[in-house]
Structures are given as structure tokens and as C-alpha cells.
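DATA SHEET
Item: assembly model
Revision: 1
Owner: S.N.
Input lines:
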Amino acid sequence: MFEIIGERINGLFLDIREAIANKDPKPVRDWAVKQAQAGAYWLDVNTGPIASKEEQAEVMAWLVKTAQEAVELPCCIDTTNVLAMEEGLKVHKGKAMINSTTAEQAKMDALFPLAANYGAAIVALTMNEKGVPKSAEDRIALAMELVANADAYGIPMPDLYIDPLVLPVNVAQEHGPEVLEALRQVKLLANPAPKTTCGLSNISQKAPNRPLINRTFLAMAMVCGLDSAVMDACDDELVDTAATASIILNQSIYCDSYLKIFRQK
Amino acid sequence: MGLTGLEIFKQLPKKNCKECGQPTCLAFAMQLAAGKASLDACPYVSDAAREALDAASAPPVALVKIGVGEKAFQIGNETVLFRHDKRFEHPTGIAIQVSDNEDVKAKVDQINKLVFDRVGQVHEVNMVAVSNDSGDAAKFADAVKTAQDNTSYPLLLISSDTGAMEKALEIAGANKPVVYAADANNYEAMVALAKKYEAPLVVKGSDLNSLAELVEKVAGLGYKNLILDSGAREFSKVVADQTQIRRQALKLFRPFGYPTIAFANNDDPIMESVNASTYVAKYAGIVVMTSAAPEHILPVITLRLNVYTDPQKPIAVESKIYEILNPGPDAPVLITTNFSLSYFCVAGDTEASRVPAYIIPVDTDGISVLTAWAAGKFTPETIADTVKKLGILEKVNHNSIIIPGGVAVLSGKTAELLGAEVIVGPRESAGIPSFFKQRWLNK
Amino acid sequence: MAVTIAKERWTSKVAEMTLGPNGLKVGGETTLPFLHFEGEMPNRPVTALEVFDMEPQDWPDILKEPFADVLSDPVAWAKKIVEYGADMVALRLMSAHPDWKDASADEVAKTAKAVAEAIDVPLIVLGCGVEEKDGQILPVVAEALEGKRCLIGCATAENYKSITAASNAYGHSVIASSPLDINLCKQLNILITEMGLSLDRIAFDPLVGALGYGIEYAYSIMERARMGALTGDKMLATPIVCFVGMEAWKAKEAKDPDVPEWGPQADRAILWEVTTATTFAIAGGTIFILRHPESVKRFNAFINEAMKSNAY
Ligand code: SF4
């Protein structure tokens, strides 16, 4: 089943930033409920930029708790601050998702054990200290390192979400086919295969017709094996596209009400 | 099925010495998985790893051939856990067991009669299992000889005594019987015997662990023409073990990459039959029973036929006149398609109505009424042709046929082509009894 | 060599339904049938035997014999069924059929009430099979049986509204029946839940075929539905009703007393009904509506074995 990771609880959005500043739980709760109803499977939770690491950790814990008070969904804890990650994991109910590690050895050695300890899923980006590779082949080589390291840390493959890194089509057009090919090949790395995810709206950064680009890419990526995406769960047409692609790919059993059923958990 | 990068990587020495021309073992594993490199490029791969990697490219469940001649059959080569995922490939072989303590000839004669006709096809059991219950090698050899002389089915030889097995194989070995079984105590001798005759060998464990261990030992002796018995005899354990063996085989756990045998043997023939049916559906390559009575075997054979049909290929019945309840000249003529399920529904509901009738399935390549209509295979022309060809209207005195309600639109043209009355019947076969009551009998 | 047991990580489960005055529970499994080594099957598959509210016209002698003295008395018949050890009684309101007596809703409701009062096991009430008529009589029956926690059917895409509304109002569960099509089964379950009946009060009926007569279609529907149920497809995660008796006893192999090459009828007929039932049990069937008491006995013996632990 395709897993929508709702992107809206993020300090980059003004209302969430204000909520964090005022310790006002209402906007966080509202977005949690709204995204859940719209069909989100995970709630991405991101504090936005906060200077102090300790303060960021505290805010992350508050966001996770607040979101989970409103709905029963698990959170995708989205931060590069390991302290904030751990505070988020500590207060999280159920299986969390760590967002994210890269193929840099130091990061993998910090985050995979954390995922293993908390029984959490983890997003793993196909990039390292050298940046984002262009070719599918190089992305897959990094994915393989992620797979081998995750396996060595005892993380079950279905808990590993490889993100081949989607770049904006208006400036990095040549990455498009490479990302799609990488999605295909990730499934051949291990058996059972790792899952895949991506930051969907990157594809349409600063381009016109953003919703159209997003949903076209989503359908194409799902054919190649995309299992989940950080995306706008409240874009109805986008979610309809995911539902329809998932039916066509025979991922769930068809019924006339499939658009509605897709949104129910 | 190819190996994944991770599976290959796990077998590599992880020295990252670059001698293979790749920067790391991981990169080399990826190249191998993509088929762009050969394992030979790494000088440090152990023999065990090499073997594991070789074996992994074999099919998940080995194909095993049993017997010779007309009644020879194959088991294995399965690729799924659920028939809806693709299909089950080779129907379970049904073996009926006869003891060397009983009148072998009499039972074999009974077994030979277990041949059933079902909508034009013959279905039968596949093997005679001779068991050395007497513990006497000579008696076993006699029983095997009697069985072989009186049946053309392949044999399954059951004895843990290698001496007895040797004698039996001297008689039956040329016909490639299944040798049952190599266990922890006798496996070396049993493997030697099976090898000599190139006969399939059952490897019998006392649980899954000991089975896997023994298969490794037998494979180590160079014999891979194998069938697995986990030793389980309690029903729920058999179901669990059969499921595990199939799951593991599909995950390419090599010791379990062979077809299985399951014993339904039970003093209560009804339990035996029901359990055997379950084993047929739940992955057994061979199922052994002791009853040779048709009432106990027919259900198992029928279920095998049903479960092993290809879900992607509709099954067709022959297009001919089917007579339900001895119809006379005034009996109605029902038209349907030769999709087996359509036919069976119409036949079943006609019987339930207790109105004798003729059923004419039109050849639509085995697809259902509405699909066939949409595909242009169930048309006024095909209906009229079939009715004329089979001459059904000469058998009745009313010059009329009944077509399914779903294709009412075909009635006019069909009537024209046929010069007969075309009555529109119910949409679903379940409506047949009341249709007959309201529309036919009052006519 | 230690074998690592392959266990699936199922994420979901089948809804659990509670029926009757004795609170009989069905469903609730967290794994595929009888794979106790990786999940729970908290309730065993259950049986019901059928009672007709008028003497059945097309039953073979072998089927009539165990009920010979009660065939025209549904209450006595129902009691006999309980004695025979069935978990439930399935009352079929045949007399309401326009081709038979065309009995009114009030008439059949009276019979249903009398039967329910006479037994302490759950009652399944089945209409006459004519969708329109069932849509009229079953709501009246549901009202008459208020509080008895019956299972009422069959609701189809044509008549589910009145049956669901009444079942919901009077505390019953419903059988949702769709012809051999998993997509329609799912859709009907959805339509019924949209009327406010919760999933643990729906059992679906895929219209099974008997052994030799298309059994494999419903078999695969059940396997697919169970896979779906365990991986999160809630709308198919309900108990499954299998009308085994009705179908198996249409088969020549069960009905025909005299076909020498098939062996004597006694074992053959029972095996036809029991094998049809056990085959659906291993595919995920939950409630088995049978006709012969010997089949209940045999089916239960099978389930006893199948429910034994197979943990590793
Ligand atoms: S030669 Fe073998 S050990 Fe050396 S890097 Fe290549 S694969 Fe690894």
C-alpha cells in the first residue's frame, strides 16, 4: 500500500512556526487531523531552523506529542540534529520513522543503531559527502552501501526507505530519468526489497503548474516502485492520483469506492 | 531468479582489496548482481560461498521426474504460495499405499480402477506405494514385483532397511521408482542406491532443522534428485511444515528447494481423505493415502483438478449436448457458454429445479457469457451454428431455445438465423428454477 | 542446521464478530488459517446446520433421514440441530418464496421468533433468495428478533439498505452476498458500513461453488481477501460465510445414490460436503453453513486437528 507522508507539520510554514513560538498546540493538531483525514499514513514532523540544539530537541518532542495526541498516526521525525531525533523517538508512540541518514559512514553509524534500538523505520538518502550523484548507477551504488550497512545493523529491509533524491525538473531535468531508473533498481538490491520514498514536491520547485508536475511524477515514480512520498496530503488530486495508480498497479483490491478507501486507515 | 546485491555481498570476503578491479567488495557484488562481472575475478571467494552462489541461481523448487513411460509424471518447479499469484505448476501425485503384509495383487487391482472421467477428461491416481511393513526383505521384494507386474503406475518404495531397498530396486529400479527414505542413520547407503538407479530419493528428517541438515549431507554426496519429508504426521504440523518449506524454497533457502511428500495415512478413511485434500492444496508434491475406495479418492482427485487449474486460463467444457435428468422431447434447451463455471452453474441450478433439460454450451474458448458477448464470441451466429451443428432442435418438439438474460439483445437475430423461437431466460443461473416454474411449465 | 522460521509480519487482523445469546465469537485472526506459529486464531471456524420453514422439496433421502421426524416442524428441527452439535442454527425462510407459499413477512417472522426462543445458540436467518422479497421480509424478521444478536442474510447490492438499517437498529449482524467477484464483495461491505453498521457486524459471502463445481474461484477470493485483511485492507477483513451445504448437495457426487464407480453414497456424499468445507477453511472461511449432521461432526474433527499448536 502506498504510504503518504504528510509534509505539513514543518516549521518552514508560517502557522507552524508561530505555533512553535507560542507553544500553541492548535495548528499542529489541526494539521495532524486534516492530513490524517486526507489519507496520510505518516506525519512528517520538522521544527524548521532553530539555533540551539537543545531547544530544537525540546520543540521536536513537543511537536511529536502534540501531533500524536490529535491522531493515531506515527510520525516521520525529520531533523539533522541527532539530539532532536532521539528526543522525538523517546516520546513517540508506536513505530516511528527516522528522516534521515545519508550514505556517509558517520551518519549511518549514528542513525542505524538508533533505528534498530527504537524499532523505527528510516529514510536513507542516496548521497554522501560528495553530494548527490547524477547517474542511476551511482545512486544505486550508494543505495547498496545503505542497504549493506542497514542489514549489518539488523534493520529489516522493509523498514529501510531509500530516497534517490528528486531534484527540480526546471533546473535538473537530466536527473529525472536517473531517479526513475534508480527506483526500479533499488528493488533488486535485496530480498525482501527495501522500500522507497522521496520528497515529492522537489520535482516542481519554482516551476509553473506545480500540482500537475507533482502528480504526473508521482504516477510515473509509482510505476517504477515508489512506495511512499513526503508530500502534500491535502492536495486532493495528488492523493487521487496515488490511489488510482495504486489500483492500477494491483496494490490493493479494486472496488468502486477506491478513492475513498485509499484515504481510510 | 537472479541474486540480489545483498545476497552476493554477504558471501564475499569483504577484504576490499580491489583485486577484482572494483573499488570495494560491495561494488563487485553490484556488478555481479547486474551480470556485468564473473565471480572468478575475485581470488578470495571460498568454495562454500561459490557453491552457495551457484545454487542460488537454480529454480526455487527443483523439478523431479518420477517413473518412466506413459504414467511417468513430474513434481516441483513451483514458484508461488498462492494460486492467484500465478498458478500451481505440477499437480500433486497421489500415491496409494499397499503393505507387503496384505494381498498386494488384490489391492493393486483396486488401485488400477481409480480412474475417473470428468467432463470428458480422465483423472487418476499416480503411484502405488509399497511398504515393507513385514520387515522382511524377501517379502518386500515379492510385493514390489507383484505391484510392478500388475500396474503401470510408478512405484514408491517404503523401507528404511537398505538391504530390503537394494533387493526391491533390483526388481523395480529400471522404472525409476521413488526411494523412501534416506534418514539420519541410513542416508549414505540410500544415496548410493538411489544414485545407482537415478531414482528420486526422499530425504526424511525428524523436524525442519534435521531435515535441512540431512539434505545438506545428501547434497554433499552429490545427489540432488530429492523429495522432502519433514517427518511431521500430525495434521497441523504438516500444514506448518509444508508452508515453511514452500516459503523457504521461494526465499531460495537451498536445502528446501525440492518438492515434498506428505502422508495422510489414517485408520479413518474420511479423515484420511480430507487431510489428503488439504495437503494437495497446501503444497505437497506427493500425497500418500491407504484407502483405495473410490468414494475416498474421488474428492481428492477432484480438488487437485480444481486447485491446479491455471487461474489465468479459464477452463472450458466440451461443446456438446448435455442431458440433465433424462430430458424428453418436450424438455427445454438452455444455451450458455463453455466456460466451465457458467456450465456448472446452469447444470446445478437446472438439477435443483428438477425440470429435465438440455444444456448447450457454445464454444467461446471457455469465457463467460458477458465477456464472450463483449468479445464477439457469443453471437447470434455462433449460437445458431452450434444449435444446428449439434442438431438439438431435431430432438425436441417445441422448436425453441432459451438464452441467458444478460444477452437478451441477441434474441431477435438468433431467432432469424435459426428459424426457431428464442426465449430470454434469467440473468443468473440461480433464477432458473423459478424461470422454469413461471415461464416454461405454464407454457 | 538451524532453520530460520519464516514468519510474516502481518500488520492487521480480521474483525471479530459476536453472535447470539451465548456470545459466540468468530473471526479475529491475525494470521492465515491455521498458521498458529506466526499469529493468533482466537476463534475456531464454526458450523451451522440448515432448517427450512417448510419441508424441503429437493433434498435427497440421505439428507432427510437424520431429520425425518422434524422436517415439517422448524422449532423441533432447530432443537435437533443443537443436539447434533452445530454451533448455530441457520433458518431458511423458504416459504416466503413467491414460487412456494409466498408467505408474508409477519408469518415468517413468527416462525423465526419461535425458533430463536427455542434455542440457546446463535440464529442465522436467511431469506428465500428472491432479493426483492428478502428486502421486505428480513427487516420485519429483524425487528421480531430484537436483542437476539442474529446473523441476517443475505443482503445484496439490490436489497442491502432495508436489511442493513433494520439489522443495525435491532442489534443484528448481516451477511453481505456478492456473486463470485472480490471487487463487488469489497464494495458491498463498504456500502453497508456507510450506513453505519460497523465492520465487526458484517460477514461476507462470495457465493461459493462446491468441490468440482468451481470451488477454486471462491477459494482464491478468500485467499486474496485474507491476504488483504492481514495487510491492512479493512474492507475485506470481515468473517466469511460459506454456504457449503446448499452447493455441495447440488452435486451429483453427493446426491446420486447409485454410481458404482464412485463407491457407496454414504461416505462419498459426506466427503463432498466436508471437503468443500475444509477447503474453504484453509482458505480463510469462518462460518460454515452445512446440511448433514455427520458433516458437522467430521468438519469439527478436522478443525480440532487444525487448531492444534504448530509453534516452532
Ligand atoms: S577481489 Fe574479492 S575481496 Fe578483493 S575487493 Fe574484490 S570482491 Fe572484495
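QC remark: Residues 17 and 28 of chain A are 10 Å apart (CA to CA).
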